[in-house]
Amino acid sequence: MTLQTVGIHNLTRPISIKTKRGTIQQTVATIDLDALLPHERSQSCIEVMMPLLAEYAEDIHVGVLPDLLLTVREQLQAKEAQLAMTFPYFINKTAPVSATSSLMEYQCTLRGTSTKRSSPLIRVSVPVTTLCPCSKEISKAGAHNQRAEVTLTVQPTGFLWLEDLIQLVEESGSCQLYSLLKRPDEKYVTEMAYDNPMFVEDVARMVALKTRHLPGIEWFSVGVESFESIHKHSAYAYIDSNDLNDISN
Known about the structure:
It contains 6 helices and 9 strands; from the N terminus they run E-E-H-H-E-E-E-H-E-H-E-H-H-E-E.
């Protein structure tokens, strides 16, 4: 019986991520590492993969994935190796009025393959506020708003900071989210959202337009899910950059 793929799934390990501020952030990643094996291998995948993951864990970024995966492929004599690494990333944010400081968590994923034709992917999941334009238009006072989750996946040709991708998304909703707000901050963010009503389609288009103008992006996708406050269902929108070729800047 021929095995097609072997590997490690749901491995939890501490990793170190360089921040844009020049510091090192310690976090915990859930790792999937697979090798496509065309024939019998001489070594156990565990014996190869575990030491390599430990070696690279001190400096994980999208630039190291090709070397790591190439080494896995060569040592296992595999046709291809692929990795997905998901981890929480924390950014210290300041409330807009009171300047109260608090940590915001963002789920991030690095995904790569050993094939030369495919560069690694970076994915960030960022919460934002959306306020319904229809609700604002038909209501005498107020409008329903809700939290939305924006998932931006990019395939860069060079280095990108996670902070820059997260900031791009946060600036594309009705308003940003914060972990801790004082009363003056609550007033600010609710009024900010009210002044910037957006459907999920609007948020997806805004993120796509900004991402499209980033230098060195081969491909990207944007998914936006709004957890509706007056409906049991969610609203969703998705854009693939391959479908934007016929749209003018």
